[in-house]
Structure prediction request, 944 residues.
Amino acid sequence: MDRATYDVVVVGGGAAGLRAAIAAAEANPAASIAIVSKVYPMRSHTVSAEGGTAAVLRDYDSFDLHCFDTIKGSDYLADQDAVEFFVSKCPEEIVQLEHWGCPWSRDPDGRVSQRAFGGMSVKRTVFAADKVGFHILHALFQTTMKFDNIHRLDEFFVTDLIREGNAAAGVTALDMRGGELVRITSKAVVLATGGCGRIYEFTTNGFIKTGDGMALAYRAGVALKDMEFVQFHPTALPGTGILITEAARGEGGYLINKDGERFLKRYVPEKMELGPRDILSRSIMSEIREGRAFDGPYGHYIGLDLRHLGEGTINTKLPMVRELAEKYVGIDPVNELIPVRPGQHYIMGGVATNARGETSVPGLYAVGETACVSINGANRLGSNSLSECLVFGTSTGRAVAEYVRKKDWPSGAAAKEAVLAEEARIYDGFLKRERGSETVAGVRKEMQQLMERDVGIYRTEAGLREACARLVSLRERFAGIGIADKERVFNTELTTVLELDYMLEVATAIAHSALGREESRGAHSRTDFPKRDDARFLNHTLAFRADGAPRIEYLPVTITRWQPAARVY
Amino acid sequence: MAEREVVFRVHRYRPESDRGPTYQDYRVPIRDDTVVLDALNHIKDTLDPTLTFRWSCRMGICGSCGMNVNGTPVLTCGVFVKDLRGGVVTVDPMANFPVLKDLVVEFDDFMRKLQGVKPFLIRKEDAPLSAGEYRQTPEQVEAYRQQSMCINCMLCYSACPVYSRTDHFLGPAASAIAYRYIKDSRDEGADERLGRISTKTGIWECTFVGECSVVCPKDVDPAAAIQSLKVLASMRHMRRILMPKSASR
Amino acid sequence: MLPWKRPAGWWLRNPRYFLFQMREVGGVFAALYALVLLWQLREFSQGELAYATFLAFMGTPGMFVVNAVMFAFVLVHAITWFALIGKAQPVQLTKEPIPWQKAFAGNLVAWVGISVVVLYLIFGGL
Prediction:
């Protein structure tokens, strides 16, 4: 069935997708934009971002300083032209969000407040208490309701890209409520499906973060760039993986080992709790390894100490931290330490794009965590990712609006073929599979444990080779997963199988990219190659899908004004 | 941590084979820190993969996992099984909405109502971005902060007896969000919004049961917001009678 | 798609729903009591005999029970509304609005105080 035709299909309704949709709708009011998401947009995982979004707004700050912090944070793997563009556009995005009603926290004089954040030299992070992602998402979502040319297809699960000639021409999707496979034809497709944290066992990411957009682009022949760089956030609640925002440290919180010591003085004496995430996560792992961590039902952890901040600051600046700690671990941070340990949080890599969101396929765009421009390089600084969604959401939305102005409508022939092929693959293939020896939960769990152990914070050649080999066998076992639910309406068993399919795709790209990079840089830490190696690896990794192992290529980093130097905090 | 088994009596409805709803019992191992959502995931992953429900963030902010547990609308990620009374835990889909399947309800009705209250800043003239932010003091933010916390989880609609009787009623969350924009010092759309919601199917349908505010997981207090809206709407009405000329503002 | 049906007796399943229903029903009894008052005034204006007959009728056991029931519902109505006032329109004199419990207490105190004054005016002179 044809679910109408749109100029632009945006896959995903988080900050990047919504911002791109609004930018496209504004730039080209004649264009019809469809937001196609597997969840209602306000469920998108942007909602869980807590700490803030970076922009240079004050006299004490400068674009150059924000550039430098970002580039140094990236361990010199960011493309510096992209960073310069990004930094110059952040301030207007903050003001734009403000004009759209986002309830930023304010200074007494009525200006938008800014707080300190890890790796940022000055107070640069704009915030709305500690529910920044939530407020940004709802402000953007509610603002889309102003536009007559923005349409929503809620709870449509995208299964494939439609191509006509070489160009993108829409998507096929499961209409979860209607219980049918539909084609959504368009002149252009923007992938904004966020990250892929659910590949890992212990993650701050929601259940929906399964790398859909990355896998879709990868299958269409687009390279996944820098996938070995996976960020582990230093402070997640053991057991659940619930994120405790970096703002807790930005507002002055301490990290404490079981001896009551602020152990970061041994690792990042200059920055202490405001060091970058990759280094802090490794420091915590060192404390655990050396027996200086607390022991709990979910393994070792260290303490996040907010007690000295006082109840007032906690309530006004960190209300969600208190709410989460009280509700989910039964601890009041006013009087007690919050147990935390590092957990997967973000992936620096993604679909290879330029600053306009363009990929190597005409009419196919990617933006947000799904994409890799790259401004984050080997390690993203906290509060740059929401800004990234906004800045590149805008540039991508404008670029796609321009593209569809000149582009002819697809004939639709490819779409009809695609939907037949997908019906055969999904309804005749997956849905008819009888319950076999394998379950989706079983295979998924093994992938998650494997990635956690061998492609986690520390990596070795032996471990990575093992991971690559076992991902091949997991792919074989995936073929043996049966589906018990035969109904087409809202079949979440079917969609979790399709999600696992996407995750295995992305996990393979991550493991092979990590195996190829024989150095330690940013979040990629190889114990067998503990030093950064600029001579060999001042390059982006490009992973192309191929029969068997992915094909790995390298692309030099763009350096403008900041020569690589030692990264010391 | 000690484990024990708890029986979950879960609402099942398979739209392509069932004519009506049934209940199915599952025995689930429970620890002190098991939340209801964990139990449902245990059922889905190990006992019965056909059980259907929504969830994502499991930290009480995405609003996906609202259900009626032992008759009360809750976010299932935030309710510990050990805190529930009675031997059997009954899990139903949220009330007052059509059920799509098992525990999944459809609430496009709310999405239309949300759009109807114009949930965005209305300005006579948008300032250019180059002019910078609209100034707003912390006190002015505080005026609408509480109602800006709505996560659209729909628990308030599930708890509202008025909505169950008259589904044209605007309802708690949409009203609270209207109030949030009206109280925002940057907004100039109060008159337009009040005109839209001060109707029999709008705020005046509310009989102040107050249950929406009791079940709200984010302390948005939609009940109070609606009563405040009634006061604002009445004042607007009186202004229009007494000062017909200036009231158009 | 399964449409939602409200179960019969829904308001008995949750004590707060039950209290809400009692509060709403209480409004009917408050109106009835107002009618009784009007009736009383009318009889009073008809002269001493008519009023004495009215009082005698009110003193019968049946009417006593009716009055007691009306009084109970009016009490429920009044007290539940006192509890709601502070929630419906939080009073804000300082930076933080007054918690509803305090508004409730204030209303109760004022109500009891005024009732005592009224009782004194009626019976105090005797």
